[in-house]
Amino acid sequence: MMGRYFRKIAGTTQSPPRVGLAEICWSGLGSLLGIMAVGYLHHQLFEGTAMLLLIGSFGASAVLIFGAIKSPLAQPRNLLGGHILSALIGVSAYQLLPPCPWLAAAVAVSVSIMVMHATRTLHPPGGATALIAVIGGERVHNLGYLYAVLPVAAGALIMLLVALLINNLSSERSYPEFWV
Question: What's the structural domain count of the chain?
Answer without folding.
Answer: 1
